[in-house]
Specification:
Helix content is 51%, strand content 9%. The strands form two sheets. The chain has a four-stranded parallel beta sheet. The chain has a four-stranded parallel beta sheet with strand order 6-5-7-8, sandwiched between helices. By secondary structure, the protein is an alpha/beta fold. It folds into two domains: 97 residues; 154 residues, Rossmann fold. The longest helix is centred in the C-terminal third of the chain and has 18 residues. Helix 6 crosses helix 10 and helix 12 crosses helix 13. One of its GO terms (molecular function) is CoB--CoM heterodisulfide reductase activity. This is CoB--CoM heterodisulfide reductase. It comes from Ferroglobus placidus (strain DSM 10642 / AEDII12DO). Keywords: Oxidoreductase. It is an enzyme of class 1 (oxidoreductase).
């Protein structure tokens, strides 16, 4: 199996990639980098400018290997899955592969440090939409990430804005920054009400929106201080990875309380 990191993981959150390799090492599943890969490219922005270029670049990436290609980014997953289905390539998302092929019980067996945390699951719009092409989970009431969170010993807390867009994807953050900030603020209000330790995502663009977006809101005098973490990082730490190896220093917002809870855990 080959891992396709995409632009956001490589350039902003390399700890996610490191965590993916750690997790699969613990699981005993062989995975290696997709050498020579480029931008996926982005399903909303690039495709809206030139569908031909979008398709050609995606095909180039997919043709770099005959093995299954895995990504931990919802946007990359959307592009590579759609084009991959057309040309007979197998494309998987980190989260759905863990849930379907590894299984929650098997993951639970590999946990060396239970994480006693209250966490808010954020799926991201592109993980299971468009539903007719993804066929992963219910687009209205998904459960995959909630179950994966429980596997590390944490509580997945329901909250008012759980299924709402964070405002980061679909070109919103790039083309309509004010709308993106408004969506993020509404999303965070719901998370804040739930009194969680962190938001758990399965897409680096969502992580970027929660992370950097909160810093932008702070400039307007709106403070939330809610950390966000990719599930790959969370799982790797629960499986025994040193917290300082998970790349959390690249995050804009990580509270001392969260850091200490990740560090200590429960055996």
């Amino acid at each position: 199996m080959k891992f396709f990191p995409g632009c956001m993981i490589h350039n902003r959150y390399p700890g996610i990639e490191k965590s993916v390799y750690y997790v699969f090492s613990v699981l005993g599943i062989e995975i290696s980098p997709l050498e020579g890969s480029s931008c996926c490219p982005a399903p909303a922005i690039t495709k809206s400018v030139s569908e031909e270029m979008w398709r050609e670049v995606a095909e180039r990436n997919l043709n770099l290997s005959d093995e299954t290609i895995m990504t931990a980014c919802n946007g990359c997953f959307t592009t590579l899955l759609e084009v991959g289905n057309e040309i007979g390539k197998d494309v998987r998302h980190f989260a759905e592969f863990l849930y379907r092929d590894v299984g929650v019980e098997e993951i639970r067996k590999k946990i060396s440090k239970k994480l006693n945390l209250r966490l808010a699951a954020h799926y991201g719009c592109h993980f299971f939409r468009p539903a007719e092409k993804k066929g992963i989970d219910s687009a209205e009431r998904p459960k995959i990430l909630d179950e994966l969170i429980k596997a590390v010993g944490a509580e997945s807390v329901d909250y008012r804005t759980k299924y709402m867009c964070c405002g980061g994807g679909g070109g919103v953050r790039a083309a309509a920054t004010e709308v993106a900030r408004e969506l993020l603020e509404m999303k965070l209000e719901g998370v804040k009400e739930a009194e969680v330790d962190a938001i758990v995502v399965i897409c680096p663009l969502c992580l970027f929106q929660f992370d950097t977006g909160q810093k932008e809101l702070e400039k307007e005098g709106k403070f939330f201080g809610i950390p966000a973490i990719h599930y790959a990082q969370l799982l790797a730490i629960a499986m025994g990875m040193d917290v300082d190896e998970a790349g959390l220093e690249a995050h804009e917002i990580i509270t001392q309380e969260l850091y200490e809870k990740l560090l200590m855990g429960e055996s």
